[in-house]
Write a structure and sequence with these properties.
The structure is a single chain. By secondary structure, this protein is an alpha+beta fold. The protein has 3 domains: 78 residues, RRM (RNA recognition motif) domain (Alpha-Beta Plaits, 2-Layer Sandwich); 76 residues, Alpha-Beta Plaits (2-Layer Sandwich); 75 residues, 2-Layer Sandwich (Alpha-Beta Plaits). It contains 9 helices and 23 strands. Strands 2-3-1-6 form a 4-stranded antiparallel sheet, with helices on one face. Strands 9-10-8-13 form a 4-stranded antiparallel sheet, with helices on one face. The longest helix has 9 residues. The N terminus and C terminus are likely disordered.
């Protein structure tokens, strides 16, 4: 079983409704300003279409942001909610059975039997109403065909919903049950279970804005110098395009580096942040065979939590 857990998702919000010209830096600066937004230290802000995902250093910042009645950037009122655990990554060349169970389903119910015109918003509003449905705070409601999957903030809400004798929406009695962990893709002729754990990112920073002639050795020497950079023992420094990824022996070094107000190398001020947990390892070739997944969308990232659910194919 592969279990790659990323607590970062507890610290991520989803922001929509922004002015079309808004860029990630503007959103990051706003939520990094505790006085204006209620937030605090931002470790990452990324854009996906018209959505922005802002990850804070700690979960308290998320709570403060969500308690704020309104958020306005560029004269536009933003829509802010806790990020749903639904980002998907892909892997390829998988050779073995990988079964990473998604704990999200412990807090998810499956709803069927709805009136054909029912929207996800209607279902979400119903189950978000504790008095009517027994539920509570809903973090996500998504529709798949004639099914709705409602995910609550905590599992107690699921218990209360299931104890309720009936659920009626638009004069229609709903069928409600705990969501099964059944998103399955298949591989062929696989024999062993692979363990793909990547804790490296807890101790890794991303460095950009370097002078074009800067080499990894220079960056490594700088961050290895605790007196100059706040860092410490570096286990690896690698370059990817104009970015450098520096991995320390322990996470305390990352914290000290991020607390440092500026980092200057070759008279250039570097941009330093905690590396996002987005690198995924791949496996290939068992007994000389290469296994390709029929459906490559099999890794569920709960704001960068990776889940693979595979079973051996009978074909």
């Amino acid at each position: 079983i592969v279990d790659v857990l990323d607590d970062e998702t507890n610290c991520t919000i989803e922001v929509t409704g922004c002015d079309p010209g808004t860029n990630p830096e503007t959103i990051e600066l706003y939520f990094d300003n505790k006085r204006r937004s209620g937030g605090g230290d931002v470790s990452e802000c990324r854009q996906e279409g018209d959505k922005f995902f802002v990850t804070f250093e700690n979960e308290d910042a998320v709570g403060r942001v969500l308690e704020q009645p309104i958020h306005v950037v560029k004269n536009t009122t933003l829509l802010v909610k806790r990020a749903a655990k639904t980002d998907i990554k892909t892997v390829e060349n998988v050779e073995e059975i990988v079964d990473v169970l998604d704990d999200e389903t412990n807090c998810t119910i499956e709803v069927t039997g709805c009136d054909p015109g029912t929207s996800p918003e209607t279902i979400e509003l119903y189950f978000d109403n504790k008095r009517r449905s027994g539920g509570g705070d809903v973090s996500e409601c998504r529709q798949e065909g004639d099914k709705f999957f409602v995910t609550f903030e905590n599992e107690d809400a699921v218990g209360r919903v299931l104890e309720q004798p009936t659920h009626v929406v638009k004069n229609t009695t709903l069928l409600v049950k705990r969501a099964a962990k059944t998103d399955i893709n298949t591989v062929e002729n696989v024999e062993e279970i692979v363990d793909v754990l990547d804790d490296e990112t807890n101790c890794t920073i991303e460095v950009t804005g370097c002078d074009p002639g800067t080499i990894p050795e220079t960056i490594e020497l700088y961050f290895d110098n605790k007196r100059r950079s706040g860092g410490g023992d570096v286990s690896e420094c690698r370059q990817e395009g104009d970015k450098f990824f520096v991995t320390f022996e322990n996470e305390d070094a990352v914290r000290r580096v991020l607390e440092q107000p500026t980092h200057v190398v070759k008279n250039t001020t570097l941009l330093v942040k905690r590396a996002a947990k987005t690198d995924i390892n791949t496996v290939e070739n068992v007994e000389g065979k290469l296994y390709i997944l029929p459906n490559r969308n099999i890794v569920h990232t709960i704001s960068n939590i990776y889940y693979l659910t595979l079973i051996q194919s009978n074909s």
